[in-house]
């Protein structure tokens, strides 16, 4: 090979591949070459430290993928065991909901809110408001009953009137004629 055809750029991804420049750059990076990245290392890191961090990152990402695969296999196995035991997803959901509700009830926030609501329910202001609303409800109910009775009486009077009977006769004749 002609020495002029060798890539002498030490940061080149094709370093050491002995490529012919007429073919164009290769998409295959050199294995283990420091500085494969087109970006310079972050401030405060040497190229060797950056490469070491890249290698560690690759290992950690591989471990994460392995753990995801193991977790997925365990979840499938657990689902199969539940199916064999006759546990349905709805049963599990009910158990989880019950457990979650128990956890909420024993939490400090729930206890504190519950105590505050109890204090409010036994306060004088709450009792007065409750009495006032109860009286207002009773008066409203009485007024609606009175109004209902008046409307019912008025409709009864109207039905017995000559105008309504004449109208009723005409409507009745229409029904018979159809």
Overall description:
With 178 residues, this protein is mainly alpha-helical. The chain contains five helices and no strands. The protein has helices at residues 47-85, 89-105, 108-121, 124-159, 162-177. The N and C termini lie far apart (108 Å). The relative contact order is 0.03. The model is unreliable at 1-35 (pLDDT under 50).
Helix content percent band: 55-70%
Low-confidence stretches: 1-35
User: Given the structure, what is the number of helices?
Assistant: 5
Helix and strand succession? HHHHH
Proportion of beta-strand residues: under 5%
N- to C-terminal distance: 108 Å
- Summed over residues and divided by their number, the pLDDT gives a mean of 79
Quaternary structure of the protein = single chain
Pfam families: TPD52
Protein name: Tumor protein D52-like 2
Family: Belongs to the TPD52 family.
InterPro entries: TPD52
Outline the fold blueprint.
Blueprint: H1 47-85, H2 89-105, H3 108-121, H4 124-159, H5 162-177
Organism: Nothobranchius kadleci (African annual killifish)
Protein name: Tumor protein D52-like 2
Region (Disordered): 1-48
Please give a quick description of this structure:
The chain is mostly helical and 178 residues long. The chain has five helices and no strands. The model is unreliable at 1-35 (pLDDT under 50).
Question: What descriptive keywords fit this protein?
Answer:
0% strand, disordered N terminus, mainly alpha, 5 helices, 69% helix, 178 residues
